[in-house]
Amino acid sequence: MSDSKSSPFGDLIYAYTRADALRDGVLIDLSDLAREAGFVISVAVTEAVYKEYLDPSPELIAEGQSFQGRAWDLFQVLHFTIAITPPTDMLLFKVLFQLDPGCPPEPVELKTICGPGDEGEPVLTILLEGED
């Protein structure tokens, strides 16, 4: 028989933490660069956001694209979107990214979630619209 402090669902068997996701590469910590852009809480992007939009191909690098520039664009758009949006824990926003060499930038819809980190602290996670 369980005591009154036990969960009605039983004992926790396993929890996958944010630290686990960062260590495994499922999330990429961009907090240092985000702080330079004015964020005061930890910020991470999913592996898909990093690989598909922030890490430019060699051809895009040859055209002047860089990880830092693309991340900075993302942070500036997100910062502005947060500033003009009523308080919420999830929002959608669009960032222009050059996706192919020689082509103009295209809008990419992303999602950000503000939730508790492993210690209950607020953290931001930036995801593709279809990720959770």
How would you characterize this protein structure?
- The protein is of the alpha+beta class.
- The protein has one domain (18-128).
- 33% of the residues lie in helices and 26% in strands.
- It contains 5 helices and 5 strands; from the N terminus they run αβαβαααβββ.
- It has helices at residues 18-24, 31-36, 47-54, 58-62, 67-84; strands at 27-29, 42-46, 90-97, 106-116, 122-128.
- Strands 1-2-5-4-3 form a 5-stranded mixed sheet.
- A hairpin with a 5-residue loop joins β4 and β5.
- The model has no long low-confidence stretch (mean pLDDT 93).
Helix coverage percent:
25-40%
**Strand segment tally:** 5
- List low-pLDDT spans: none
How would a crystallographer describe the biggest sheet?
5 strands, mixed
User: How many structural domains?
Assistant: 1
Mean pLDDT figure: 93
How much strand content do the residues show? Answer: 25-35%
Radius of gyration: 18 Å
Contiguous helical run count: 5
